[in-house]
Amino acid sequence: MDRSSAGEAIATRGRLVARVRYGQGHVASDTAARDIVQGEALAGYQARPWLQVWLGPRARTFVTSGLSDRRWLFWTAGLGARGGIFPGRVDSFAELWLGFSGRLNRPAGSASGRGVELGLEAMVPKRPLRLRLSYVVEQGRLDDGRRDTVEGLALAARYQLR
User: Fold this and answer.
1) Full-prediction pTM beyond 0.85?
2) Can you list the domains of the chain with their CATH numbers?
């Protein structure tokens, strides 16, 4: 992925967490350059102060010349862990997910997927806002072995509701 930007909203109640994320960017491959749009709506559980468990759908659409080219949709389970580098100011994080059920529209078929996101998150003082810089690798795979891999850097702003 050449460039990507994203927005994220999180709501928490006790140990339960809900996360909605939307991002878009530009992908350049050996054969073509395309725009990409991604989103997720996940429900989670805060198992430990540093560990979250996630479940929910993730979608990715590749767009060429303003038309939808390919749409991946996965039902996923994942883990997220974080650790304080400068407590209360900068955290590191790692998230892993696995798509246990999925579909691709073109060519139509069943799919699976997986991904990892690693990065840093800085808290904005006296505000429920965080800035996140991450390295992302995601792969969708059809049952016949064909696959799409997206990798790159992402910059996101997160607003957290409590």
Assistant:
1) no
2) 3-161 (2.40.160.20)
